[in-house]
Write a structure and sequence with these properties.
The protein has five helices and no strands. The protein is mainly alpha-helical.
Length: 142
Amino acid sequence: MLSIVVMLGILIPLIIIYQELEIGIKRVSRIKKFCLHAPISIIYLIWISVATIVNVACALYFYSWNGWGITHTVWTIIILFAAAAISSLMVIRYRDIPYTGVTVWALVGIALKHWDYSLIRNVALLVTIVVMIIVIIQLWRN
């Protein structure tokens, strides 16, 4: 449980920094984009986001959380949709393609990990395709 607090202690300031720097909103030089915006987006924010989600899931599993009677499969699908929604928001609002790229990587990894379980695999692939379509539309619009 302490690890979740620590992860949130990293994630929340990163979100604030991301917003304060107006990453994806404010035009900046290439050097600033490469040396400041990209590392915060790609290296820190998305990876800490993914790690926090995984950390919470592991803690819930460790403490034998019953999911309020909702099955593990349904919770997995809810998390897949939530990840796709957050990623879509990041690409639409902040034009943050790298953030979405890491999300796509994670979704494909989930689909491959659960290849023998068609429902999770298919939902993971479906939300991956939807997120990629949103990215393509955003790239085309810009």
